[in-house]
Design a protein that fits this description.
Layout lengths: L6 H9 L5 E7 L5 E7 H8 L5 E4 L26 E6 L5 E2 L6 E9 L10 H14 L2 E14 L3 H6 L17 H20 L4 E6 L5 E6 L2 E2 H21 L3 E3 L13 E9 L17 H12 L5 H4 L21 E2 L7 E4 L6 E4 L8 H18 L24 H9 L2 H7 L1 H21 L3 H7 L4
Parallel strand pairs: 1-6, 13-14
Antiparallel strand pairs: 1-2, 3-4, 4-6, 5-6, 7-9, 7-10, 7-11, 7-12, 8-9, 12-15, 14-15
Helix pairs in contact: 3-9, 7-9, 9-11, 10-12, 11-12
Amino acid sequence: MSTLLTVDDLKSRIAAGEIATVICAMPDLWGRLVGKRLTAKNFLSAALGSEGVHASVYLFCVDMDMDPRPGYALTGWDKGFQDCVLRPDLATIRVLPWVPKTAFVLCDAVDHDGTEMAVAPRTILKRQLARAAALGLSFKCASELEFFVFRDSYDEAWEKRYRGLKPTSRYRADYHMLQSTRDEPLIGEMREMMEAAGIEVENAKTEWGLGQQEIALRYADALEMADRHLLYKNWVKEIISQHGLSATFMAKPFIDEIGSSCHVHVSLWGTDGKPASFDASTDSHMAPRFGSFVAGMIAGGRDYAMLFAPTINSYKRFRKESFAPVQLVCGGDNRTCGFRLVGHGPSFRVESRIPGADANPYLMLAGILASGLDGIEAGLPTPEIYEANAYLDGSLPRVPPTLRDAVDLFAGSDAAKASFGDVTHAHLLHFARQEVEAFEQETVTDWEMMRYFERI
């Protein structure tokens, strides 16, 4: 029985008094859930009626602290930060078992004429899927998110300025059953809650870092996968918070610790539902169009990197021999390569090991698909399979070393402009530049104080 609800199911539960609140939320550019809690009565009359649920478009123009930033064409003080409408996607209704009498629905941001906003993350991904459909193609994707868990609550961690936090394990325990049994009361509850909320979990394991976990989600169509990823990431924090613990999805929370990745698996399918990645007759087993897709991922890996590694912190994760590859090359079952081929037959797919856990899933997948579609449209040849240690090969193209470098590459990319359109490209570019400037011009780090305060 599906854990997602139809509108009639929801109405019945509201009538029975089982649902009192409906959350209407959408992803912002940071990959956060933003929206409103509606009384069940007003959800039925407003969200499902002609009135709609309104929110300010400033949500697409704010920094991490919700400060509206200048320079966006979309809106500003000169335009009064006008409203958009949160239009519920009625295929996403579910009950949240950890929040009493509460249902949830994902929304699209639309203008008052019903047009989806070009800069909204869901819209950005949908447009790449439409581009693929015009070529007779679709995608199935899966993300593997890593995160760190600490015994400190979020309030305690904030008061400590995130220093001296206590991880939930004391020693490296990658794949260890002993540590995973210790963690099972929490991680097992997470798996159950996610399944009950309509997010299919494939497996869970302890990761290499102290307190680090990975819960892999079952593959799905690309938009559904981005939705699940977004909800899972937010809901992990909610559930952990209820236990008085904290978690982080930062790409590199501690300089002397491993980072947290988001490995993304992508397979190519026809719009007729037939797999289109595997071809047993080729040496690489890549079908021609899939080979062009992977070649496009490699060729566009630098131009689109800003979408896979969107924060200042993201680039600290990319280190040699750290399972965070920096080289843009395709290997077989080779974890030193930025792209790895795995599976066989219908399950044959490419794994991008570039994105970090801090990536916005919609923008991340849009960048992966856009680069691959660029390759298909250009008819790029299937890449050679790299079989050595890619970390040691300085001749290979690599991920940009900083966010500023990635932003500059995105800015000058004709491919990215063509893929996203001028309006969206300019908006994403300005958003990223604001983050670079916030760090470079408005921040004095602890490192600077310790290095320069007395001795300079």
